[in-house]
Specification:
The chain has 341 residues and is mainly α. The chain is built from 16 helices and 2 strands. α14 runs antiparallel to α15.
Amino acid sequence: MNRLATWIKNHQIAAFFLITFAITWGLGFSFDAVLKQDQYLLAPLMVVAMCGPALAGIIISAATNTQPKQGTHKVFWIAFFLAWFVSALVFITHNTFISHVPLSPPVIISAFVVVVPVAFVISMSYSRIPAVRNYLSSLIRLRGVWGWALLALVWVPILVLLSALISRLLGRHISVVPLFPVTGSSLVGLITVRFFYQLFFYNAVGEEVGWRGFALPRLQARTSPLIASLIIAFFWVPWHFFLWKAQGVIWNTELTTNNALIFLSSIITGWFYNHSKGNILVAGIIHAAQNTYIKLLLNWDSITYLVVMAVVALVLILVDRMWKKLPADHPAVYQAPLLDG
């Protein structure tokens, strides 16, 4: 065990991707079982699979921790039960108003079972293990980065509207139409419900805790933000394999669009993470905002949107010189006496 812990400590990046794929792909069968075969008893396994990146980061942080435990169990359990209740509330609200699942005692009970992994990840922000607590602290903190959080929230709708305008100017006659046949405050309410669902399940809690919160700082200790973001995207694409397969993603144009979107999103999300001083929640907000708007729009021009994203990403790369390494003391760069390999 000591030999394994030493290897993990010295090869944290490699260990992260190995554990992430072991969890997500190891439980990959659950996606097809739940989404295609209605085997809802396997839903908790699917949630664990979706939290693979976050769980990998937590496992490695705990395994490499060298400090004595701090605090009390009481604080952790209070955080867990609060996160458990809020996660279940978000899950039930989404199922009721978006998925139109009739509310019943079995539905409520199953929701509290399904959300346990999400509640666990959030509550580990109050872990007694210092390395884990420090790693996850920004998941529940926006102090000092409210401006970046607001920009992350409106960034995607601005790009969607811009791409729609460009489409019209090009004569493509494609309009941005919301999925829901409602307007005004009702539409805003449904978008809000969907956004919080994406934030909890699983864009911030399951994914960004791992991709940006754990992997990006360690990669940026070795290479530039641009290369680090591209490396993450390289693994981020196949990580979705079982989910996309279960969702019936077409393995041609749709798959190419998804892949391009992930590579561009990795660059832009990484830029937000770095400028918000390594804040996981800010990265989660832009991730959730993108998935919210894309999944709630009908008849929108995805190709023009990708081109706009590509131009924006290029501008960020050039203006920010993302091909250059960040200073070693930058808050978004992993700092340790011994660099991981």
